[in-house]
Amino acid sequence: MSLLGKRLKIRFFTTNTLGSKDSKRKKLRAFVPLSLCGLVFRHPLGKLLVKPQGLFLIVIFFAGFLTTLYVSNEHIFYWWDYAFYKEIADDTSRMFIQNPFQALKAVYFSTWLDYNYYFALPLIPFMELFKYSRLGYIIGLVFVYHIPMLIVSGHIARRIFPSHTYAGWITIFTGALIPAFWASAFRGYPDTGAVLLIAVAIVIYLLDMELKKWRLQLPVIGILCGLAIIFRRHFAYNVASLLFSIGAFLLFFALQRSEKNWRKGLSEFWNVLIKMQIILAFLVLSIVLLAPGLLLNIIYVNYLSLYSSYSLNPFQVFVYFLKTYGVLWFLVVLGFASGIPKIQKVFQLEGENADQKSLCFILLFGVTSVFIWVAIPRQTGTQYMLHVALPILLGISALIVWVIIKPKTLVHWLLTPGIFLLLGYNLWAGLAPVHLVPIPTTLNHPPLYRPDYDEVARLVAYLREIAGGNGSIYIADSSKLMNDEIIHHAEVSLYGEHTSLRILHSPQIDSRDFYPLAPLLQAEYVVVTTPFQYHLSEDEQKVVKFVFDIFSYQWKIRKDFKKLPEEFHLYDGAVLSVYKRQVPTSLETTLLTFSQMRKYIGRLPGGQPDWILITPSAEASLVYDINGKKHSVTISKDSPSLSFLYAGADPAQYLITGKAKFSDEGCPPVGVSMQVFSLSEPMPMLYLKQITSGAGDFVLNIEKTGAIALVLSFQQNTTLSIPLCNPILEWEMSE
Questions:
Q1: Residue 528 pairs with which residues in a beta bridge?
Q2: Where would I find the beta strands (DSSP E) of 43-154?
Q3: Average pLDDT for 403-422
Q4: Tally of CB atoms within 10 A around 21
């Protein structure tokens, strides 16, 4: 008989041995389930299943089966984050196979970008083994981050219930049945890795909640918190919740030790501050050493303003939290409430074996996490709901452990399988296709499926036929039905490496992106879907709606394009049309469109630099410093003439200071001109100043007079026999 079977047998025959009627009734109630358990655990396979190795194999098999089943039922062209993280993993893996040192260097410098590549390093074996498939990437996320997170959560449960060996495994199996955890990984988000790091930090803290062994605990906690922020930037809010909870408990212990002595209390308070400062110091140090670009971005970039278009009101975000976990919140509340002695007495629970302080810490951490996210970022998304993953999981597992510690009635015996049946159905309701779920108990995250898959494939084939290799394409849509990345990934999916479409990067969000003027001027083809396609609110996506209205309401720039006869019918009754450019857009129409654009959008988009390239055929990359003020551009033989339109805040006077850098003294000079136009039709030129710049500085200035547009142009003299030398022009606007 297995150890668990022996325990059950001993517990059965040693309970109420006085032979009372109550004892006989309780034995009779427990006879059937105990007999079934005995039959299972007497079998050799049953003995294996209750061992850690067997339980671990069950988790691995279940995770692999569920992941394969889910991904194999997807039929879609991925877009945005759903595709971008896998692209990062693909690129990092290929770089690492070719040159490990260069790959590690690229990962380090990726911290200057919005998405760093650190998460992709542990996924390299899976990407190679599964030949860079979507299934291999998702399995990598599950095995590298998801399952270890569940295992570490089990360690936290063991700390809460130190005398109950199976508390950890109960937590692991409970976590495997929560759909919101799987949904984040199945959508391609690596965020579970940040939850894993925070879980390890909690394990380290719970070893000694008063942090008496601070020489080891404090640096480790600080480093783990820093790594969590590096891993996924938005987990800085979760780290703040963790540090707040640690600080609150340290103050609680300090008050207990002070014994109402204010001098001793002041000393204890000072010790708490020192400990928290050490944690913060190692947190910052880990970011400085591993992700200096992230630290600079945090200092210089106002992320709350940049992503304000995604922010909802607190009530909406709170309701999203409730919907994400659905009926599980009821179990979570019962789990934490079961730690209250009066409730334990009413329901005949044995809670005296639990570490109440550890449980209270997890509860405080969860409440703080919800409050901070609802109050500050106020965004919704599958990956953001992982901020409460640990409290959700530990609350449910606490309820199950308390119920099965010492079952006294048939209700207790039936309640545990009842909870797991509910969790199992909830997993089905959370991940199955919507039409298969009769009673939704949680927010549904079905496999992504596109009913108009073949129509999108036909669209890609059509675009390749008319624009492949030559024309640039602007996609004036921003929804899961159609956007710029759907076309790109559809072509990659259908044609592999033989891609030919040039999809322009188009703005999506007002608070984060830029005016659509530059890509619209470069576009040879414009794709527009009716009705208007957006994924936030129209008021937060005016940079998209503006282009849609241009082609819907026949604005002046619309006359430069001709609608092609071919149409494409997408799902939900949407109709997609393609427009082809007939003539280049004139400077007058460009300025008029810019004036209309500023009035329409109403605010300067958050990612808009001060200058917009308005030379349609030019291939030039405008580079600007981290403050967005100093700009530079390289003039090449393919684009010897470049013009930029000033789009920044209006200063009291226009003063442009700049410098031309030449690689050779014999290079032809660059002509620099500043043109000022009135923004009232017919857009007359008010001012023109031209200078010729050799290697050296140049200065242009004019007083501001009314609503005007400023155009700065650079032109290298191509009539001379001297070869062009790719000079670099640097300039900035100042007052």
A1: 577
A2: none
A3: 76
A4: 8
Q: Quick one: pLDDT at residue 326?
A: 93
CB 448 within 8 A of CB 74: yes
| Alpha-carbon span 734 to 468, nearest angstrom | 43
Residue 219's closest CA among 153, 277, 148, 270? Answer: 277
The H-or-E segment that residue 137 falls in is helix 134-141
Residue keyed to tokens 């609680």 = 252
Reported as a single tens digit per residue, the pLDDT across 373-387 is 999 999 999 999 999
Burial of 465 (0-12, 13-18, 19+ CB in 10 A): exposed
Across-strand partners of 576? 529, 568
Number of H helices, E strands in the chain: 28, 15
Calpha distance 190→535 (Å, rounded): 22
Contact present, 397 and 167 (Cβ < 8 Å): yes
Q: How many whole angstroms separate alpha carbon 657 and alpha carbon 396?
A: 64
Q: How far is CA 699 from CA 623, 693, 734, in A?
A: 20, 10, 11
For the chain, the distance separating the N- and C-terminal CA atoms, rounded to the nearest angstrom, is 86
CA separation for the pair 711, 676 (Å, rounded): 6
Residue 513 identity: D
- CB burial string 579-613: b at 16+ within 10 A, e below: bbbeeebebebbbbbbbbbbeebeeebbbbbbbbb
In 32-101, which ranges are E strands? Answer: none
HSE (side-chain half, CA atoms, 13 Å) at 598:
18
Q: 42 vs 4, 237, 246, 566, 602, CA distance in Å?
A: 10, 49, 46, 70, 74
CA angle 162–168–173, rounded 5-degree value = 155
Q: What CA–CA distance (Å, rounded) separates 511 from 303?
A: 10
DSSP at 663:
S
Of 570 and 610, the structure prediction assigns the larger pLDDT to: 570
| pLDDT tens-digit readout, 668-712 | 777 888 888 877 766 666 666 666 655 567 787 777 666 678 888
DSSP string, 157-204: HHHHSTT-TTHHHHHHHHHTT-HHHHHHHHTT--THHHHHHHHHHHHH
Rounded to 5°, angle at Cα 698 from 694 and 704: 150
Neighbouring CB atoms inside 10 A of 391's CB total 22
Helices (H), 207-327: 214-231, 236-258, 262-290, 292-300, 303-306, 314-325
Distance CA 325, CA 28 (A): 38
For residue 187, the cross-strand partners are none
Evaluate whether 275 touches 602 at the Cβ level (below 8 Å). no
pLDDT in tens, 291-316: 999 998 888 888 888 899 999 999 99
With a cut of 50, say whether residue 126 has pLDDT above it.
yes
pLDDT tens, 578-601?
999 999 999 889 999 999 999 999
Say if CB 35 and CB 60 are below 8 A apart. no
What SS3 class is residue 403?
helix
Total count of residues recorded for the chain: 735
Helices 21-42 and 410-431: crossing angle, nearest 10°?
A: 40
Query: What's the pLDDT score for residue 119?
Result: 96
Assign 3-class secondary structure to 670-682. Answer: EEEEEEEEECCCC
Distance, CA of 661 to chain centre = 40
User: Which residues, at least 6 apart from 336, have a Cβ–Cβ distance to it below 8 Å?
Assistant: 359, 363, 395, 398
Contact 335/344 with Cβ under 8 angstroms? Answer: no
